């Protein structure tokens, strides 16, 4: 029988507690993690003499390089010294900064699979996390993800989860007149230091459906609020019904696949606006242009296909809504190496390939391949890595992700 997931609520602001209360809270947490038996040991004895001789600063740097799920399930339970060090805000946030981006997707067994490029671009690492989900992966922010589940009552339940630590927090239900979509996003507003969830909706409270956006501040709001979209064009309102993209600058973007229209929401001001495309529509007439938008981290990049393996690239700064031309990306000279890495014979000597996400901007870019493969390409060293997936990634989706120890309210 499958064990039900514990639903956590964001912890309250830190209070001044006595040492006795702190120790009691610590013991309860340890018992929950290790199944009722306290395996936590003090760093004493001959077997710990080498570990104790390591300076705290050096030990801190070593532990930062461990994967998040290894820290949460194993390393933090080694001894009290490690446990307390790994619980500090400084360690949690520095661990996030040291973590590398990778790709996350759900396989046929509902296991969460993480793929990352090795240091230097030579090869790829793939492993499964100790987490199962019934949903597609759509978004990630600082290691936190958004999971949704539909019920028989046609309600959609949204959860903020950390897949490395298996912590989850259920969000309030949307109002009955707002029909939520699976296209949702979680982002971080650095000004208020809060996480906000954004959901594309249809407002049916007026007898007819109106495309709109609902937003909620996690751990603060008890109900959703609607973002004003009355000023958007018809095309803009249709665009917000697509998959959102979060950038680290505190912006959420929408770009309908194949189009150049971009709609941007500022998480701080909660104002939504349309950004004109970098190329006039009349310049696109007569051409078969395939477009897609990817987050570069802080900004947004737009790819315009100019050939089978050639893309024109633009970068947008959301603060001012202006596009800047970047060097074109051409993989024509790498076609033979791509076919060799993927191990797939393409029809008509052509490769169906499209950009997936930036793993390290502007150096490492990931691409989808038509045979359910992903390649990582280093634009500077020309190193190529490939991974064959077990599901149709065009439909299941992948997302850019960092495994972290971040949780709500205090960390």
Question: Can you walk me through this structure?
Answer:
The chain has 411 residues and is of the alpha+beta class. Helix content is 18%, strand content 36%. The protein is built from ten helices and 24 strands. The protein has helices at 19-34, 49-53, 56-64, 68-73, 80-87, 89-98, 234-239, 281-284, 335-342, 393-396; strands spanning 102-106, 111-117, 124-132, 140-141, 144-150, 156-162, 167-170, 178-189, 194-203, 210-217, 225-227, 244-247, 251-254, 262-266, 271-275, 291-295, 300-307, 310-317, 322-330, 353-360, 364-369, 373-378, 384-388, 399-401. The strands form six sheets. It has a four-stranded antiparallel sheet, with no helix packed on it. A four-stranded antiparallel sheet has the order 4-5-6-7, with no helix packed on it.
Q: Would you summarize the structure shown here?
A:
The protein has 411 residues and is an alpha+beta fold. The protein has helices at 19-34, 49-53, 56-64, 68-73, 80-87, 89-98, 234-239, 281-284, 335-342, 393-396, and strands at 102-106, 111-117, 124-132, 140-141, 144-150, 156-162, 167-170, 178-189, 194-203, 210-217, 225-227, 244-247, 251-254, 262-266, 271-275, 291-295, 300-307, 310-317, 322-330, 353-360, 364-369, 373-378, 384-388, 399-401. The longest helix has 16 residues, at 19-34.
